[in-house]
Amino acid sequence: MMQPITTIAYIGLGSNLSSPIKQVQAAIDEIKKIAHSQVIKVSSLYLSKPMGPQDQDDYINAVLALQTTLTPLELLDALQSIENKAGRVRKENRWGARILDLDIILFGDDIITSERLTVPHYGMTKREFVLLPLAEIAADLIIPSSIAADRQSVKILSQKIANNAIGKLVQR
């Protein structure tokens, strides 16, 4: 019998509503319960300014590494189930406040472009609230890309990005 393929996925977590620190910590606990998966590293929590409209509270962000035998879409379904359980409501306003946001940032070296999922997560290389926590747990990771010039380490990308007053908040 063939062994299932094990992949390391990186998940971005964010919240700015309903006790955001508790929301992110509860989400980490729920991700630990995802079948056929194991959390292997979790970044510190970071406080960051919102992307988009500034008339909302700051965000709490983190990134975790998850070893899984799930497919990308099975993992996406599991993460969306956690979001829904937390009370996430998907709105037209893409950059609005949210109780919980869980994104697959990377899924191994896969490059995925589908209606439901884009990996590497679009814009991740321009978001300090993704790059800085990711650099904390996987600095040497190379971002997969079909364009050779775009394949850079998380460490180099995180050193180039403006930090926009992001601050490390809590060690997990």
Task: Write a concise synopsis of the structure shown.
This protein is an alpha+beta fold.
Helix content: 25-40%
User: Span between N and C termini?
Assistant: 38 Å
- Rg from C-alpha positions? 15 Å
The major pleated sheet works out as:
6 strands, antiparallel
Number of strands: 8
The CATH topology:
Alpha-Beta Plaits
Decide which structural class fits the backbone. alpha+beta
Count the domains: 1
* Mean pLDDT rating: 89
The fraction of residues assigned to DSSP E strands is: 25-35%
CATH class: Alpha Beta
Order of helices and strands: EHEEEHEEEHHE
- The CATH homologous superfamily is termed 7,8-Dihydro-6-hydroxymethylpterin-pyrophosphokinase HPPK
Can you name the CATH architecture?
2-Layer Sandwich
Structural notes for this entry:
The protein has four helices and eight strands; from the N terminus they run E-H-E-E-E-H-E-E-E-H-H-E. By secondary structure, the chain is an alpha+beta fold. The chain has a single domain, classed as 7,8-Dihydro-6-hydroxymethylpterin-pyrophosphokinase HPPK (Alpha-Beta Plaits). Strands 1, 2, 3, 4, 5 and 8 form a six-stranded antiparallel beta sheet that branches. Strand 6 and strand 7 (about 120) form a beta hairpin. About 35% of the residues are buried.
